[in-house]
Amino acid sequence: MKPAWWWIATALVLALVFAAYLRPDFMFDMATRIVLCFQ
């Protein structure tokens, strides 16, 4: 069984991902920044 901090970290990351989907403009901005890093 994994330590408690592992479950807390996983839940936090999932919560942030789901929260980000509520703001499409934020998702578009982040996607644009990531694409520009590889150009």
Secondary-structure topology with pairs:
Blueprint: H1 4-21, H2 24-37
Q: Main beta sheet: strand number and arrangement?
A: none
Radius of gyration: 14 Å
Helix-strand string? HH
Report the sheet-strand fraction. under 5%
Number of strands: 0
Outline: elongated
Number of helices: 2
DSSP helix fraction: over 70%
Average residue pLDDT: 87
- Tell me the structural class: mainly alpha
Q: Tags for this entry?
A:
0% strand; 39 residues; mainly alpha
Note down, in words, how this protein is organized.
This protein is elongated. It has one domain (4-38). It is an all-alpha fold and 39 residues long. The chain has helices at 4-21, 24-37. The mean pLDDT is 87.
Q: What is shown here, in short?
A:
The protein is 82% helix and 0% strand. It is an all-alpha fold.
